[in-house]
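Students often ask what a holo structure prediction actually looks like on paper. The answer is less mysterious than it sounds. You provide the chain, you provide the ligand, and the output is a string of discrete structure tokens encoding the 3D arrangement of the protein together with pyridoxal-5'-phosphate.
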Amino acid sequence: MRYLPKSDSERREMLAVCGLQSAEELFAHLPEDVRFEAPLALPPGISEFEIVDYFHARSAENANGYASFLGAGVYAHYRPVMVDTVVSRGEFLTSYTPYQAEISQGTLTTIFEFQTMICQLTGMDVANASMYDGSTAVPEAALMAARITGRHRVLASRVVHPEYREVLRTYGRHGQLSIEEFGYLPDSGTLDLEDLERKIDNATGAVIVQSPNFFGIVEDIRSVAELAHKHGALLIVIFTEAVSLGILQPPVDADIVAGELQSFAIAPSYGGPYAGIIATKERFIRQMPGRLVGETTDSRGNRAFCLTLATREQHIRREKATSNICTNQALIALMATVFMSVYGKQGLRELAEQNLAKAHYLSSLLKPRFTGPFFNEFVASTNGRAPEEINQLLLKKKIIGGVALGKWYPELEHCVLLCATEMTRREHMDEVGRAFEPVPQAA
Amino acid sequence: MRYLPKSDSERREMLAVCGLQSAEELFAHLPEDVRFEAPLALPPGISEFEIVDYFHARSAENANGYASFLGAGVYAHYRPVMVDTVVSRGEFLTSYTPYQAEISQGTLTTIFEFQTMICQLTGMDVANASMYDGSTAVPEAALMAARITGRHRVLASRVVHPEYREVLRTYGRHGQLSIEEFGYLPDSGTLDLEDLERKIDNATGAVIVQSPNFFGIVEDIRSVAELAHKHGALLIVIFTEAVSLGILQPPVDADIVAGELQSFAIAPSYGGPYAGIIATKERFIRQMPGRLVGETTDSRGNRAFCLTLATREQHIRREKATSNICTNQALIALMATVFMSVYGKQGLRELAEQNLAKAHYLSSLLKPRFTGPFFNEFVASTNGRAPEEINQLLLKKKIIGGVALGKWYPELEHCVLLCATEMTRREHMDEVGRAFEPVPQAA
Amino acid sequence: MIAKVRSHITQNELLLFEQSSPGKKGYQLPPLDVPPVDAATVLGAANVRSEIDGFPEVSEVETIRHFTRLSTWNYAIDLGLYPLGSCTMKYNPRVNELVARLDGLAWAHPYQPEALAQGAMNIMARLEAALAEITGMDAVTLQPAAGAHGELTGILLIRALLEKRGNPRKKVLIPDSAHGTNPATAAIAGYSVENIRSNDCGSVDLAQLERIVDQDVAALMVTNPNTLGVFEANIKSIADILHKKGALLYMDGANMNALVGIAQPGRFGVDVMHLNLHKTFSTPHGGGGPGGGPVAVKKILEPFLPLPRLKHLRNRWTFDYKRPRSIGRVRAFYGNFGVIVRALAYILAHGGNGLRNATVDAVLNANYIRKKLEPHYDLPFKAPNMHEVVFSDDRQAKHGVRTGDIAKRLIDYGFHPYTVSFPLIVRGALMIEPTETEGKRELDLFADAMASIAQEVETDPELVRSAPHSTRISRVDEVTAARRPVLKWKPGTPSAKPAD
Amino acid sequence: MIAKVRSHITQNELLLFEQSSPGKKGYQLPPLDVPPVDAATVLGAANVRSEIDGFPEVSEVETIRHFTRLSTWNYAIDLGLYPLGSCTMKYNPRVNELVARLDGLAWAHPYQPEALAQGAMNIMARLEAALAEITGMDAVTLQPAAGAHGELTGILLIRALLEKRGNPRKKVLIPDSAHGTNPATAAIAGYSVENIRSNDCGSVDLAQLERIVDQDVAALMVTNPNTLGVFEANIKSIADILHKKGALLYMDGANMNALVGIAQPGRFGVDVMHLNLHKTFSTPHGGGGPGGGPVAVKKILEPFLPLPRLKHLRNRWTFDYKRPRSIGRVRAFYGNFGVIVRALAYILAHGGNGLRNATVDAVLNANYIRKKLEPHYDLPFKAPNMHEVVFSDDRQAKHGVRTGDIAKRLIDYGFHPYTVSFPLIVRGALMIEPTETEGKRELDLFADAMASIAQEVETDPELVRSAPHSTRISRVDEVTAARRPVLKWKPGTPSAKPAD
Ligand SMILES: Cc1ncc(COP(=O)(O)O)c(C=O)c1O
Ligand SMILES: Cc1ncc(COP(=O)(O)O)c(C=O)c1O
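The corresponding structure tokens follow.
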């Protein structure tokens, strides 16, 4: 088989060295009753040509050539060719976690650059080398806050991504965290500060908000921070649309920032792999989950990088570790690193401005449900029509419409969350505008 | 601009170093009347996103998703993923001709392996590092033969690829070669040895034949060789379908082999870039065109490779060089090298056998025009129907039929050259079979 | 004698920030086809940031050179043997990279209509079925993002089942040979960890287990083969002991590369286990991730699996969200789909028999290495090993050379080191896992290198202690890195000579 | 001081043949969906070969390691400055690689129906038009595969025109500063070559030219800017002299990177010229090729261009084969289409003004290098230079160090050498062309290296003469290679230590 670099004669030689007649003897020590003699009920191996063919066929069964207005945590941004060019280098693609610094400086250096750029973007002091994704970064941040404050009550905004909140509940379920939610304002679509004020108390360890929130609306971080800090709680700020950081005030008043970098040249890929991050203030470093790369020197005094502060991690601390995470999303974080390098300071700003302009053009054609300021997605009202009905019209035009919100927000059953990015074309937005126009009622 | 790694401040610094105020001064010495002040009448530069878009649109204007029976010098074989993986390595893709051996051993080693494998395939003693393509390798081989024999008369078989013969005529046109053709046998489709015998004389420097010939038919090289050698002429054997060498007797009786490697994982790419080769006998080395890599040692006695016998080449010999070729097809030859490594001894044989089987299945559904043995393409008779008519029927089924031969061989006006490879599916061959079935005549 | 590498020039390279100059660009955007908006107006001036301090400004050519140069400082599977024990660093087929990037898959949005996602759902369903067959379990979830994530999922499933039975219980038992993620996971899941000592064959001690399993024990997390590469011969009795007391058996499947096609955990008493797609199923490690940590369970745990679940209804795949007993989501969306695609491509390439042959070669390679190195290194546990083998630095320690030093010296010989000082039950462990994708020649060169180092330890220990000597940077000061952490670039730094 | 590189380990690697073992496989074919045939039966036993002696048998993982390891022995543009004079080694945009591989383009067969090839024909037509605009010529053919091939095409066009005028004439004039392909081309085209001496500014001597141009002269092949990087100021007078005598002016466009957007050859008397897509238009050199050598001509030569010609008829592109005066094909099909795609992508990316800006930066870089190196190296020709600059080793020769030695020493400093001993009119030439895609920092490091080597020549000439010292192989014995050519691997070889 092409993945097995041995000829049969080589196998025989090696068995001989091991003093064995046949390969089966290698398993002779296994208890009879655990050995499994029947062949696996899987079809025989196929050629590369057939593999490509098979996945081409599957790919063709998915949407192809559709314009899409889906956002809601996963955004369609252009992926510079440089990104796959870099991550396809075998030296990055097929290397392991850089524990052996002397032959891993390539990976270590890119992670150090990644940590630096995430700090520059978020206004935090330190950022880790990645988490699985944005959704799992949320409970990790909440647990971190609990370790820091010794408090286990968590208040999460209802306009945090619904699936992120579900993940938080799953992690919380076993009792270490007690999670409650607070509402949003029905007119502005921003979080309801008064509701938070009513619910927050001195047992509250963390307040969790998202900005831009799930409705695409920019939250007023400072006032939440003040409220949280007044009660001795930490503020955790989440972002799902990293491109927004190109133009929005960074969440400097947060204690912990947890986010998703999918927007940085990471393909939607039906939900993963993506890259989450956790960034925080200097003083919380030792409670941080995940890997960290630090600068140091080699024995000759040259600058060098290595994994550091490992005493937080499971392979040293075991049950006392700050998290159980081991394998993370290094290669995906590298994609984001290359993306940030390609766009740079001006590019990220200009990219954000284009997203802003496109989304606001789209909103000018529709009836926005909320009044709060938004970045590249917003909630539109269907004027009482079923979102499904409008989306069906659009599908006929090879357009995938927005996300219907009823399933998460019954009160928004006639609302759709639509996203526009630099890739969204005006003619498609105009189509969407037409599809939303009230259908003339037969008298 | 993204391809220009300078900031304006850096430009100013550098101009200052040159003692200049403005970049325009760099061109001050150009005569007024040659300087061109108007901007080029070309649209402004576009983004990467738009470039991809533009070529996607062009690509969509070409055939997509068609089954094809086109061969005639360009063959649709599967391209192992490994091939583009290797040639996309910047170290291979963006390096220059390996004149500086100490930092070019990667390229030099692969070329040495290439030369070796071409010799193993063709049965020749030496092979060069590549020519532009198969068609230009033909006149280069003819000129080489002329240098060796001192004779300028060339006899080319009419079943050599018509476009290859056109290129030969163009090169010959300026008088250094006088080119005549000899025919083929109307029943077998093989070259007409008697016609050759009639035409060959002691002024003939080279006899040029192709095998498998343009009709896909295997020629009897030995008897042509005997005839040519009897008259002191050299035999040049051409191949356009390299995969045939996996199963066919190598042309060991040839003096020069000139061929096209497109079949070895080189995309059809609307006619190029491909890779031609010239291989020959030891004693003719010094008359060979093109680059050669040789084994040697470094000053410490390590095995090393370098370009060699450069005294044949234009940069040393100038007007006395064996050819004017400089840039060749190195990266394409590397594709072929990777292909040969992936398939190897058994794979190339099995691949050839599959091609053989597919083509013979197809021929069993049609009416072959000739009786000679063929590899993966053959001429089918349309029973008097216009090839166009049949191909139009097939196009409706998203099948591109064979090549109509009338334009090159008026006597074959009702014949089509069809090719089947390992990629050709039985159901499409059956469709072709049906399309060729005689249409019932209205009485 | 060092036969595998020679020294050659490699390019130095500054950090992006150190190459940045105002106005350099690596991007261009298409012209805007809608009216521009004023950010301050639509967002409110207070919400608009000033420029991103220190963010790089470089051109495209500098970007490709930056990452290309850095890449040459790495070792990788594509360059040679990567014998990290427990990590299963095998060849990553390139066709898998190609298919994962097909437009219809790479650009699929998790919320696009199911009717326009059948291809993706089909791929997931097919991998779930294949993994169920390989493990001999009843159901599989692909949602976990990595092994540790799968562990957490698995323990939460156990907790959910026990809760339903009336008592989640308090403790999870973990052998002292286990990987760190096991205890860390149990803790996050709210269990206290009780470490159990391995017997002198490195296996779980049945008698001891009998003693400590009681009504407080929720589960035992066992790795099989264990981290010594030794198969837990008593696995069925272990399962019985637990089951008798109403506890469950969790299996860490990180070492499945020793069992695929040979033995099915579902048949030897395992209730729940995870797999590492980035180990056993060849998806690339990418310098630390991404991975995939599917969890396979027996029927009793199936109702608790994370939602949504794939369901086949009227010839169409659909997601089932109506699962009242589910533990809920462990991550957003459906898992690391791109990794799932690669793992399926790997399974399709091998097929049933092929997967078994791969296992056989993996075990053969480990046993071959064992035979070759036994004369030179101490083998603390003599039980037959499967896909990996663990030596100790006992003999070398006498010369003041530890496993970490031998590892660094291996670098000079052109190899990536084995796993150092794990498992903890072996003092100064050398944990070696060659995997099946290594040929005889590469293994022989490795064995020769290890033998030669053993020699050097006796003749010139300092040479080994101060290794590596041939890399572009010498041994790194990890102590200072941790004592005075510098975790991001600051203007003015570096104090030390940069690699330029 | 060497600031740009450090030494690091690189993997050794045997030849494929030396790793081969019977039965190892890197391939698998799909099952045959038609009946197998017996080769001996259908082909005749005599036509069927026995197995291919010595052909490799290796697995997929060995293949990727083989080529990955070998690649690390190369220098490349992606690693740094490649200042080869006359070669225009500029950055090769990666998006061009992507678009050239789009299925509809990469899998287009040259004989597919024109109706199903409009996209490809459109791309070719658009590049023809862009090149006509850039050169200021009237028509362009994309058929030639490289520069030398373009030269041959151009000279054959001239020959065809002159023949039509009644006399093909005998001679082609070529300045002694010309590239070797020029005389080689003229010879193949059946012309005798008359070399003309450059004047002491390195340019064509008008007076001399006046004297020698007669009825036997078919054309002058001039490179402009010439190979010293100097623009032929008298180019218009040169053209006049030739035209007065019924001869034509051929321009070797290899140095167009100095003129794009600045001056159009079509406006200064050139009748026919070639372009190198793999130089001026950024297509990758790929270790020696492929390239593209389009030829641009004035109206008078248009009827003779190779066939087929693209024609726009009723909103459709078609190939015109009815061109009685055409010189015929210079190659099969239509040219190196894949290279054509990349060149067009490059032109689209820059646009009109962008192309001019690139030229300006290219000339700026060359002049910057000139200024920086003038204190250390002898500049034989003082005329203002454009995109490249040529020094001589005059000063260093006094210490017994020649340009070739300095070139090898540059390797230790982390740079690819400049072009050595070309053009021939400069004794011991150092021909330096940085191109526009180099930043200030890379140029400064290069200038520092050159200055430092000039120092070393005075303090320690042997150090330079014996360079390189830091590469995996030291200086190569090219003499023996040529004296006893070993041009293929034979079992039993190598006699020398292999790189393993
Ligand atoms: C035995 C064992 N268990 C668990 C893990 C954790 O898996 P992951 O790194 O995918 O989270 C690993 C891998 O490091 C391992 O080797
Ligand atoms: C001045 C000059 N003319 C002609 C050529 C030949 O071009 P090519 O190598 O594309 O055949 C070259 C490139 O080597 C050159 O530098």
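The two ends of chain D are 31 Å apart (CA to CA).
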